[in-house]
Write a structure and sequence with these properties.
six-stranded mixed β-sheet, 6 strands, about 30% helix, globular
């Protein structure tokens, strides 16, 4: 029987003005942290986007190579269901595809006039919790995604 895992990533901006994954968090159905890894930048960081990402200069010291983080992620979720919010952005940033995903952002009943709502809005509407007050925390966001998904099981 497949298990469900929720993922969230935080991004920084590289010197080519592109987003680059800096943190990957994965929680299980019980909201336990399965992994929470910082990813070594593959290009120089030009903007840590701390105000939104929560990523601080110097995170690179404790970061792991992107390939190691991707391998660990794959070992955890292989054969299971991966849940996320606007999950394709995280998959693109990681440079991976995964066959069995559920995207809370594009779940029909959550769309307003065909538009995605923010995770902050959905967390408040669906769970009555306030998240993302200030910089984001990928563990907190992954937990909110999992709670929303479990409530609806689409």
């Amino acid at each position: 029987m497949p298990r469900y895992y929720a993922i969230d990533c935080e991004m920084v901006q590289n010197n080519m003005n592109q987003s680059m994954v800096a943190r990957v968090s994965l929680v299980d159905e019980d909201l336990n942290i399965v992994m929470d890894e910082y990813v070594k930048p593959t290009h120089p960081v030009s903007d840590y986007r701390t105000w939104i990402s929560g990523i601080q200069p110097g995170y690179e010291r404790d970061a792991k190579p992107k390939s190691d983080v991707i391998n660990r992620l794959g070992n955890n979720v292989n054969g299971h269901v991966l849940v996320g919010f606007d999950i394709q952005k995280d998959m693109d940033a990681l440079g991976i595809t995964y066959p069995n995903v559920k995207d809370v952002a594009t779940y029909g009943p959550f769309l307003k006039f065909g538009q995605k709502q923010s995770l902050k809005t959905l967390a408040y509407q669906e769970l009555g919790i306030n998240i993302q007050n200030g910089s984001h925390d990928s563990v907190e966001d992954a937990r909110a995604v999992m709670r929303i998904y479990k409530k609806h099981r689409f």
